[in-house]
Amino acid sequence: MPEQKVHATRVAKLPIESLEVPEMIQMLEIWNDWRAERPAPMWHDVNFMKIPWPLLSTTSVVDVLDGGEDFYYRYWGVGLTNLFGLDRTGVRMSEHPIIASHQVRNKQLDAVIEGRCPKLFLATIERPDFGSVAHKINLRLPIMDNPDGVTKILSKCEVDRINMEGSEDLAWYYPYEYVDA
Q1: Closest CA to 163 of 123, 124, 109, 137
Q2: 63-68 long-range contacts, Cβ below 8 Å, gap at least 24?
Q3: Is the pLDDT of residue 177 over 50?
Q4: Whole-model pTM?
């Protein structure tokens, strides 16, 4: 079973009104344009060409499987690949080698499914032997294929590097160690 040397702790749900990051505000405005008067946009209204590249690079989209029992990464931005050192496109969240990692994400995604509205989260990313290395803000936006419920979630993240050198990425802090269970 893999052991993660760094993990998200103190995940807090923030009021959407507290959103201050300009890139995330811009993403929320784009999402609001897509949704018009509906609670969430339909997938066919989502146009990635309307998302500026700096925003798109740290964006992901998951398909909601079985009402939220699992999630499938439909899109994983190149900025996320650079940040975490891996590309999750085409992977189910349940296949993530670190169980705690997908459990943290599941709680956030479940809140979007249940609320059918944007949600904002702040996670402190820590390494036990190093302390806090970054704050990660996640803006999670619901998308629907039909009016019955959320079928996809678009997420935009921003990372505030606390104790990271400018050239470091979170992959450096994510050394996976595989041990027998």
Answers
A1: 124
A2: 63/151, 63/152, 64/109, 64/113, 64/150, 64/151, 64/152, 64/153, 65/92, 67/113, 67/149, 68/106, 68/109, 68/110, 68/113
A3: no
A4: 0.81
